[in-house]
């Protein structure tokens, strides 16, 4: 099987090499082959004694070959030549007996009929091959060339000898960020029309643009030749400008956001695959950095390789049970009593090293892997609440909010654990909410409909309007630790904190300050009327058994002497 496929590949390569030869050379060598075959056939018929035997039929070989190369007109021409050549040879060379006229005329007619028919057939085959090839190189929805055409054209451009001025081929991958919403609102036809409109508009980029290709539902690739780095940067800049103008799809004016990644042929080793891959990596880097365009740098590739490795390790770690949920207590500031716990994920890798979520969660949150990771967290948290009572908070990322099945599972887990839904709280960061406020609101309403609490995490860092608080069905605010840090030294920080607490209370929300590390911060927050506090002053996040021991000790001290307990228990715990 592999022998067969390598033979076919070698055949295709040879054919490709042949097709890329100069046209004059190809016609000259094909003509020569035909003349040689005609001469060989004539000589053979002569040597074998004349036209009385069956050898004249060998002349059909050049006739059919001419049909394959030059269709019916080539075949007819060679058939005529073959018929006339055969007419010139006697019936018997030895006796010199000539052929009857009818004999060679019939033979000539036969050559012409067979040649014309075969030539026509070859022409039909060629036409259907060309239309199949064209279809395989075209995106059926938008009618634009597709990724197969891109690779083939790019391979052709790369074969050209490198220019003296070092300008080479530039590849720009364009992703339309909002295509999902456009498809949802207007259907797939609108997104196809939009692709065509963008591609047409980009033809204004000038003579260096050699082609534009649709390589996926939301992506176009543009080829430029000849270009150097500065020109490519300028072209990318123009593309962003052109993309930002209004476009019309299905009669609806739309404004789209484009993200671009570019790569440039810098050495002779570049291949179509490597240039497209580099442009894609650069586009992903631009998307990650919230920039409109990035040009490929080798460090991008290293980073994305590291990310892929990390994601693979997390996936394996999850399957091998290497993840744990640690719990950090939250305290009621008025009474000093523990009011709940935040579940924070930890990864104990194969060497037993405890890895903090900052090392892997930002990457995991950008992939579908966040779903099984959050399922694990939900399961652990419900189990903890069932065994030990109390309130448990878990963190949700933006993808989790958009995952209806995950939300349903959360409800199911709460029911199965037999805990009261208000024992569970979901923390969502402000930035995750503002990503798509409408969808986030729907998700939060759903969580609230299960009776589960919802609080806004890292509050105050999202630079968003407080207006949205009025519309979201939330129950709590967690003020980011950046606001807690300066409380003791800075009067203005204290005023800001007072203001944030007031905002929370104005909306009837439970206000928690996070990152409390000193006794001074604790007292100020108490004074300002903050409801809850969480931080290293009380405890870092601990594994369940250590947390239970900590809780037990604390409860005992509180029972002995309130003020003593307060003094003894607020001790600094180094971060894990
Ligand atoms: P976060 O939700 O804001 O969690 C609070 C982080 O602050 C935790 O870091 C906690 O250990 C740390 N912290 C608590 N008290 C103090 C303090 O007094 N001082 C200082 N400097 N830090 C304090 P951690 O556990 O490393 O988590 C970091 C972030 O990772 C979390 O921030 C959260 O965004 C994310 N994360 C953790 N677990 C999960 C999870 O299960 N799911 C998701 N989606 N994200 C998680
Ligand atoms: Ca949190
Ligand atoms: Ca936080």
Automatic annotation (TrEMBL):
The entry's keywords: Membrane, Transmembrane, Transmembrane helix
Taxonomic source organism: Billgrantia bachuensis
Name of the protein in question: GGDEF domain-containing protein
Annotated TM spans: 32-49, 69-92, 104-122
Listed PROSITE patterns: EAL (PS50883), GGDEF (PS50887)
SMART domains per record: EAL, GGDEF
InterPro entries: Cyclic-di-GMP_PDE-like, EAL_dom, EAL_sf, GGDEF_dom, Nucleotide_cyclase, Rev_trsase/Diguanyl_cyclase
Domain EAL, chain residue ranges per copy: 307-555
Ranges of residues in domain GGDEF: 167-299
């Amino acid at each position: 099987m592999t022998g067969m496929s390598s033979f076919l590949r070698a055949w295709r390569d040879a054919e490709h090499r042949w097709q890329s030869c100069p046209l004059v050379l190809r016609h000259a060598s094909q003509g020569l082959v035909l003349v040689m075959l005609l001469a060989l056939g004539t000589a053979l018929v002569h040597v074998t004694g004349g036209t009385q035997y069956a050898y004249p039929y060998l002349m059909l070989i050049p006739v059919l070959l001419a049909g394959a190369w030059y269709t019916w007109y080539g075949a007819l021409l060679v058939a005529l030549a073959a018929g006339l050549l055969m007419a010139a040879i006697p019936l018997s060379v030895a006796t010199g007996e000539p052929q009857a006229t009818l004999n060679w005329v019939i033979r000539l007619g036969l050559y012409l009929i067979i040649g014309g028919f075969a030539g026509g057939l070859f022409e039909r085959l060629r036409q259907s091959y060309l239309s199949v090839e064209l279809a395989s190189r075209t995106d059926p929805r938008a009618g634009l060339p597709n990724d197969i055409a891109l690779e083939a054209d790019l391979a052709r451009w790369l074969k050209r000898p490198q220019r003296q001025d070092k300008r080479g081929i530039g590849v720009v991958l364009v992703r339309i960020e909002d295509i999902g919403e456009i498809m949802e609102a207007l259907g797939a036809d609108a997104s196809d029309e939009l692709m065509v409109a963008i591609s047409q508009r980009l033809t204004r980029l000038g003579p260096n643009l050699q082609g534009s290709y649709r390589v996926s539902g939301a992506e176009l690739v543009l080829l430029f030749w000849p270009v150097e780095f500065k020109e490519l940067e300028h072209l990318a800049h123009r593309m962003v400008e052109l993309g930002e103008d209004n476009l019309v799809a299905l009669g609806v004016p739309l404004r789209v956001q484009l993200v671009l990644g570019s790569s440039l042929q810098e050495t002779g080793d570049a291949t179509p695959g490597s240039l497209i891959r580099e442009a894609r990596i650069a586009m992903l880097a631009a998307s990650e950095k919230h920039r409109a365009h990035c040009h490929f740098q080798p460090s991008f590739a290293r980073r994305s390789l590291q990310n892929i490795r990390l994601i693979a390790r997390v996936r394996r770690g999850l399957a091998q049970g290497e993840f744990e949920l640690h719990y950090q207590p939250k305290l009621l500031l008025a009474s000093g009593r523990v009011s709940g716990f935040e579940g924070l994920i930890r990864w104990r890798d194969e060497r037993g090293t405890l890895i903090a979520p900052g090392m892997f969660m930002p990457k995991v949150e950008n992939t579908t892997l966040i779903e099984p990771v959050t399922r694990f967290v939900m399961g652990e948290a419900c189990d903890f609440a069932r065994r030990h009572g109390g309130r448990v908070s878990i963190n949700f990322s933006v993808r989790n909010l958009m995952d209806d099945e995950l939300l349903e599972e959360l409800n199911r887990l709460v029911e199965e654990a037999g805990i009261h839904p208000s024992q569970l709280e979901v923390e969502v960061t402000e930035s995750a909410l503002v990503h798509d406020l409408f969808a986030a609101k729907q998700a939060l309403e759903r969580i609230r409909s299960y009776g589960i609490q919802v609080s806004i995490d890292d509050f105050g860092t999202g630079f968003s309007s407080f207006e949205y608080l009025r519309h979201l069905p939330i129950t709590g605010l967690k003020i980011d630790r950046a606001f807690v840090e300066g409380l003791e030294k800075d009067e203005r920080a204290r005023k800001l904190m007072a203001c944030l607490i007031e905002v929370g209370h104005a909306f009837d929300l439970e206000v928690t300050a996070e990152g409390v590390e000193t006794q001074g911060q604790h007292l100020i927050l108490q004074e300002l009327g903050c409801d809850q506090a969480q931080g290293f002053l009380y405890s870092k996040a601990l594994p369940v058994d250590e947390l239970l021991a900590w809780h037990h000790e604390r409860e005992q001290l509180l029972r002995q002497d309130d003020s003593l307990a307060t003094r003894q228990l607020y001790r600094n715990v180094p971060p894990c």
